[in-house]
Write a structure and sequence with these properties.
alpha+beta, 2 domains, two-stranded parallel ribbon, TIM Barrel, 6 strands, about 30% helix, 5 helices, about 170 residues, four-stranded antiparallel β-sheet, Apiosidase-like_cat_dom
């Protein structure tokens, strides 16, 4: 984990801290940083594209993109994969190759502080405002293994991260 954090910090320093980026330049540092980050963590070795799989941590994306409703029993995650072509400045839906504009909101503590009704309301209002991604965390950054969620549940049994509280 420390190695990944160091790698990410070094990438940020090398590509994002050398002044403002001009979107008209071919060597846009933000794009370079994203490409390096994706290649470092999400590259599909059998492809020339860099693929970022949508993780369960941002399950809200399924709701916001209209692929599932909150009452859906089974989610189909393969429809939520997006790709960044190796030499492109854009994102695509992997299956359909349609352009994907990442309009995100951050709600880091969404699943820790709100009840299900409030989460549904929040996601519905974000979708109505045109957001298609909500970034959240699975484990709280603040005492994540010992902090209770809205319903009084801990994320892990006995604070052991190998034993999720399902």
């Amino acid at each position: 984990m420390k190695e990944r954090i160091f790698k990410l910090t070094k990438l940020q320093r090398d590509f994002c801290c050398h002044g403002p980026c001009n979107p008209r330049e071919s060597n846009n540092r933000s794009i370079s940083f994203l490409k390096l980050l994706w290649s470092a963590y999400f590259q599909d070795p059998n492809s020339t594209k860099h693929t970022m799989k949508v993780l369960p941590a941002i399950a809200a994306a399924a709701y916001l993109t209209g692929l599932v409703s909150p009452s859906a029993i089974e989610l189909s995650w393969h429809n939520l994969t997006i790709t960044a072509p190796q030499y492109g400045r854009y994102l695509l839906r992997t299956e359909s190759e349609e352009p994907f504009f990442w309009k995100a909101d951050t709600a880091w503590e969404l699943t820790h502080r709100l009840n299900k009704t409030s989460i549904d309301f929040y996601l519905k209002t974000r979708a109505e405002k045109g957001y298609n991604v909500v970034l959240s965390v699975v484990i709280s950054a603040y005492n994540g293994t010992t902090r209770l969620n809205f319903y009084g549940d801990l994320p892990f049994n006995n604070s052991d991260t190998t034993q999720p509280n399902e």
